[in-house]
Amino acid sequence: MAYAHRDSSFGWSQSGSLPSGVKWLLITNVAVFVLYFFAAGTGMEDIFRPLGLVPRSVVESFALWQLVTYMFLHDPNSLWHILLNMLALWMFGMELEGTWGTRRFLQYYFWCGIGSGLIVVAANWVAGTPDIRLIGASGAIYGLLLAFGVLFPNQMVLFAFIFPMKARYFVMILGAIAFLSTIRSPGGPVSHLAHLSGMLFGLAFLKSRGLSKAMRSDPFWRMRKAYRDWQFQRNKRKFNLYLKKKSDQDKWVH
Could you tell me which of 124, 128, 206, 241 has the fewest CB atoms within 10 Å of its CB? Predict the structure, then answer.
């Protein structure tokens, strides 16, 4: 995944701090990754193996906890795996949690992640590959991307950190890539089916609760967003002025 937020005012609360849901998801994911990384380096990675999502374990051994724990495991041999997922969680999750509140945000996050895991379990079981192990929060993350595109369709983002486009088109492109990749390489090392499933479960969640329509028609939400944007720009100007004064003072320090 490659994306970037163009308007950094999105997601920040008035105090400039992380909302609790996003904060603890970030802390937990990073902490587990660090432990997994050192365990893998010392040959003790088998300790974490029961936490990954294995369809055979879920179906035959009723290891239902794997539908949750797999979201907190990331490949210890790939820093990009966790980095991109956590970057997306931070950039898009903050605005969603600030809009919905922590409880609904976490409900949505785990709904997408667990739903994505269920689809992967069913698909691999039917395909005769029940021993494939799935790890990573990508299913839940793609659900966040879908929600952001639906609720803030005109917000500008940078695709691949280069190309500016509206969030709605950004999500459409990611969905098309996930769909085509699922068809072309269903058994590849990256579970594109998990990505696509996370988006589909996210869409079902929004539609079932009427969240997208309710938000766009809520004048108070629009007023709150406008106030947050104005406050961010004001604080940004103050900060830039402080930096300018600081720079001028530093010129006299030798």
Answer: 128
* Number of domains the chain is built from: 1
Question: Is 23 a member of any domain?
Answer: yes
Per-residue model confidence as pLDDT tens for the chain (254 residues): 443 443 333 333 444 578 999 999 999 999 999 999 999 888 888 899 999 999 999 999 999 999 999 999 998 888 888 988 898 899 889 989 988 999 999 999 999 999 999 999 999 999 888 998 999 998 999 999 999 988 888 887 766 656 777 878 888 887 777 666 655 554 444 467 888 899 999 999 998 876 555 455 444 455 555 656 666 566 656 656 655 555 554 444 33
Report how far residue 25's alpha carbon sits from residue 14's, in angstroms, rounded to the nearest whole number: 20
Q: Is residue 221 part of a domain?
A: no
pTM attached to this predicted model: 0.75
In a domain, 157, yes or no: yes
Can you give the residue range of the structural domain that contains 101? 3-212
